[in-house]
Specification:
Mean pLDDT: 89
Strand order of the largest sheet: 1-2
Distance between the termini: 35 Å
Structural class: mainly alpha
Number of helices: 10
Radius of gyration: 22 Å
Shape: elongated
């Protein structure tokens, strides 16, 4: 006979917890691919070495335009997912613990108790808000540059200036985002499989209750 289990005996917490659904992971992946195409084609358009290496500027321009227009589509499609909408709510909801996290980050204080976080920490919320706004600005200025007959020259010149410099800023921020992801294998595992270790969740996101 199997051994009797004491009803009062505590049940061990699962070694892994669910962090992202399949729909959320696909939104992230497709957005990352489209953003990567935009950055790569922009580099081929503006950096002479890459431009000479790739050639076919007209084709590169068209790929850049199509990828840019499609960039918001994965997020819009993701709104059909209840889990994705819930995570957007988490990203858009700030609390006192987020201010504590940001102050600790500015002081380079890496102590666990100094960086309380829910499902998303304040750095992730800041990045999500910034990249969403930057994407909309890039889309708007890109459309002004694409449909040249719809706007006066002054508007197109201003749009080109904003588009180019914001593109450079996005490249720097994305490099930082990728660098932080490379330094956190468990976070990458969560985006790849949807699961993270209980130990990581308790350490990095102590206020999150999965």
């Amino acid at each position: 006979m199997p051994p009797r289990v004491d009803a009062e005996q505590p049940v061990a917490a699962p070694a892994r917890v669910h962090r992202f659904t399949r729909a959320e992971r696909w939104v992230h992946r497709t957005t990352a691919v489209l953003m990567g195409v935009c950055v790569a084609t922009a580099a081929c358009l503006y950096i002479p070495v890459f431009a000479e290496l790739v050639g076919r500027r007209e084709l590169v321009v068209r790929i850049h335009e199509v990828a840019g227009v499609l960039l918001p589509v994965p997020v819009l499609a993701g709104l059909a997912s209840r889990a994705f909408r819930a995570d957007l709510g988490h990203l858009n909801r700030w609390g006192p613990h987020d201010r504590i996290w940001l102050r600790a980050a500015l002081r380079r204080d890496h102590r666990r108790r100094s960086r309380p976080a829910g499902k998303f920490n304040a750095g992730q919320k800041t990045y999500a808000a910034w990249i969403a706004g930057a994407t909309l600005v890039m889309l708007g200025t890109g459309l002004l540059m694409w449909f040249t007959h719809l706007t006066p020259l002054k508007w197109r010149t201003s749009a080109t200036f904003v588009h180019d410099w914001l593109a450079l800023t996005i490249g720097v921020v994305l490099a930082g985002h990728i660098g932080m992801a490379l330094g956190d294998p468990e976070s990458r595992r969560g985006l790849r499989t949807g699961l993270v270790s209980r130990h990581w969740a308790d350490r990095e996101h102590p206020l999150w209750r999965p």
